[in-house]
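Teaching assistant here, posting this on the class forum so everyone can see the example we discussed in section. The complex has two components, and the goal was to see what a joint structure prediction looks like when all of them are supplied at once.
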Amino acid sequence: MVGGPAGSGVFATGTIAAKALVYHGYSVFATNEYPSLIRGGHQWFLVVARWNGEALAHRRQLDVVLALDNRTVELHAHKLRKGGFVVCDEKVAGSLPNAEGVVSLPLSQLVSEVGAPPVAVNVAGLAALFGMLGGSLEQLHAAIRSYYRGRERLAELNVKVAAAGYTVGAEHSDRAAPKLKYEPRGRRLLIDGNSAVALGLLAGGMSFFAAYPITPASPILHFLAEVQRETGVAVVQAECELAAINMAIGAAFAGARSAVATSGPGFSLMTESLGEAAMTETPIVVVNVQRAGPSTGLPTHTAQGDLRFAIHASHGEFPRVVLAPGDPVEAYELACEALNIAWRYQVPVILLSDKFLGESYWTIEKLPEVQPEEGAVLRGSGTPGYVRYKITDSGVSPMALPGTEGVRVYANSNEHDEQGIVTTDPAVVKAMQDKRWRKLLALREEAERRGVKVYGEGGVALLVWGSVKTIAMEALRDLGGVKLVQVVWLEPFPAKALREAVGSRRLLVAENNARGQLASLVREHVLREPDAILLKYDGQPLEPEEVIEFVRANAR
Amino acid sequence: MRAALADLGFRRENVVAVAGIGCHGRMTEYLDVNAFHAIHGRAVPVAEGVKLANPKLTVLVHTGDGDAYAIGLSHLLHAARRNIGIKVLVHNNMVYALTTGQAGPTTPRGLKTRSTPYGSVEEPFNPLLLLLASGATFVARGFSDDVQHLKELVKRAILHKGFAVIDVIQPCVTFYDARQWFKERAYKLEDESHDPSDFRAALEKSLEAERVPLGVIYEVEKPTFEELVLSREHPPLALRNLKVKQPLGKLLSRFE
């Protein structure tokens, strides 16, 4: 773990460490916590590296802490395993009441000797740690160059700092065991959930994206803005979330595959327009990277509190789809799939991520193959007598685009007839409602077919959704006899598939919210009371250890 | 609007009208063009999305003083600031009429309505001044009493490059019939020596209170949002071929 005040380069240090360890051949998981401040406040970045098997989540115990200030030592040193140690600059060490287990190094001195600014003490400390652990300086340099891509002078300055830090650290290699291994394993990716969502949307043919800045969803906006020239995606920073979703609805009505990304407060603002998308049958994807609420809540902390809200958001009744990925690979697949579903059924699709998934990093070999599908779009010239809301058996009306010769496309947020003209005729109103609801039949089938995933086998079923998946998978290393069941489609709810997956096993549920929202869906759709529920709602993700203790305590 | 579109010879397939909620809302049913009847206050961002997805379309917004100046005000000002090529007609009757007569942002002080039975105590704001301050590149005022003049204004707005807004004074004969008041005070800017490219002169005109100037108050040419934001190397967003794959392989190098 690396810790320090916000603005001291904690994020850079952690990311470089994570990349360098991937280059060494490790599987790496990384996550971080930061305050809603630009300078000051405490921030940390945790890197977990595994040589055998996949690094899936954090663990309670730390091996080493790189402390950029004494507060980091106060907050985290007690989590060190036996034989673990703290690395810090001698100035930080000098301010500590107890220097036991602390490796004090002249980091700020060597930074000034190299001619780098004082903030470079972070890279000096990291390099010293790699020196102590006998890591590859070459791979550390490669990670620094990768992190500072496009900022060559900064990269080279940090490379010099790292070389000096590594030498100083190597002199203390007797303090650190075991040593780092190094065996290149070819190209692998270290990717966060937010980037995976952005890439999945691009792979799904998204050509229009609008957003209003909000933590922790802004990295999706940043990434897409950065790649807009290469990919041709139009990226608009709107004046508010209402504008963002309405721009996306307008763009989709005109024929552009569109998406927006936000977090809880912005999602709340978008809800009226979810109904607008549903009523006008305009395909739209809304990504909600959940954070802890209610209200402003904890802007930089994680939660799964928006599940019920996403399922019911907006007034009136209409079909929608709610999907929740559990890791970056699923985030990529489901972001593409969300667009496909939106266009296949002309319904709003909500992709529920969260801060933990969005801003944590996992090592993957490659992204899976995905395919955009056009859906019921009529291109080319129009057909005589075309009406936008034709009543069909599937409930899906072929969608012509404005600009099609001989066709008038009329979308209406008022209840309307087949042409789109306002109506209050009870028979027409009912027919249109029924038409929209008929989409649910096919959507239910898709949910039953693909909405539940299982891992492992045993007499106990551990039920999770969203980002708790990786934490539960990590817990499974220490647990026998557990079948992990993940619900990926939350709406429509795959009740039959879930009933089959769980069978007569004991049913345990683990969620990152206060009320057990998945558990409530189980009660509603499966008519079963879970045998035990583990809930966490303090802004922190669940710890694998908590899941292990919970399962052991409730396995019979 | 129908006459303006006919005069310009535009094909109806290439025109999209977006309406909000209010007395203007049924406009989309009176025009034989593509249409999106949006929710209250959000016609402008829907229109912006349409324009960005397919800039070849002529995108018209029909909105009212409640829709554009109250609930949806920020969208109007930001669209002006962006200079995105949508044409906004604000059907300004200075009152909420569809909801049976309440005061709105352009209701004169002292007017008795169902929500202000003792007279409105709020100062109305000045939409033209606000739009000029927001960077609108075309600001005009029309009057429903002079349809011929209004038609010419609409044509100029449509032909203007970028964002255009016309505040159309359109008194409500049921809830606030101010027709006579306006008739007595309205005059045409064309009849006087007003230079619409002069921003300070435009500000002066927008501040006029004794008389009501009609016509183009301000017009200037600037690059449009769609020109600046959309890629020239790719087809319009709405016409992309999904079989053309994104170069994701190249994007992945940053995650290595």
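For the discussion questions: The two ends of chain B are 56 Å apart (CA to CA). Chain B touches chain A through 52 residues (CB under 8 Å). Think about how each of these relates to the inputs above.
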